[in-house]
Automatic annotation (TrEMBL):
GO molecular function: catalytic activity
Name this polypeptide is given: Uncharacterized protein
Pfam families in the cross-refs: ECH_1 (PF00378)
InterPro entries on file: ClpP/crotonase-like_dom_sf, Enoyl-CoA_hyd/isom_CS, Enoyl-CoA_hydra/iso
Amino acid sequence: MTHFKTITSFVRHPALLFKRFNSSAASESNSALVLKNKIGAVATVGINRPNKRNCVNYATAEQLVQAFEEFDQDESVCAIVLHGIGGNFCAGYDLQELSTGNASILSEKRGPMGPSQMLTKKPLIAAVSGYAVAGGFELALLCDMRVMEDTAVMGVFCRRFGVPLIDGGTVRLPALVGFSRAMDLILTGRPIKAKEAHEWGLANRVVSCGTALGQAVNLADSLKRFPQKCMQADRQSAYYATYSAKSLQDALQYEFDNGVPILEMESIHGARKFVDGIGHHGKFQLNGSSDSQK
């Protein structure tokens, strides 16, 4: 309970959140392009190029991949929050670097923005502030959920300069909002603000300006109370059904095959708790919820 109150206080006072999150980064070099932090069971990955609205260059993309890989293997982490330092989520790829004709950005199996071709085991939540446009929009789409500030803007701004969506934008956007709405954003490059994004299902939460990171951490932290293997299996099945399944039967079989092992690992224990009177009437505050972390 004390830990939850601490996190809640960060939402009310975002400055405290940055002070706490960045305390371990103080000893880092000023050239750190990605700031990695942990608060409880939540890992945060912050793009740290505020003077460039957190646009991503080759080196930043490398550090983003490393951060995602590190936290995805960390058993103490239940979820990862991606955010931008200094008021903007991410303004896309660094066009100054692209203008040099540096072909190295296309030489890796990963996407130019870094982790855009990854499917992590852990849930990903984007804390969207300021601009999340072009490749930054694609990074937001990579995440399972988006907590968006009421003043934030998303969009395919790279339409203006002939830079294609090669970090998953044309794949994930139609899956999230439908083909017709995706075409509206992809073809016109127009901005989409928080209210409309929420109406479309593109933003999962709309929050006050300056609170996206704290709210996203709260949301991520709430996931730790659930049995983790079950949650991860359901998440993987949803991704498979949406992007990889060859047919309805294929998707159903994948769900079944990957869900059945969970019965013995977590479900029987959960059923016994319910029989003992825990969680009746739809209650989510379960006694002994820390068992899910074992």
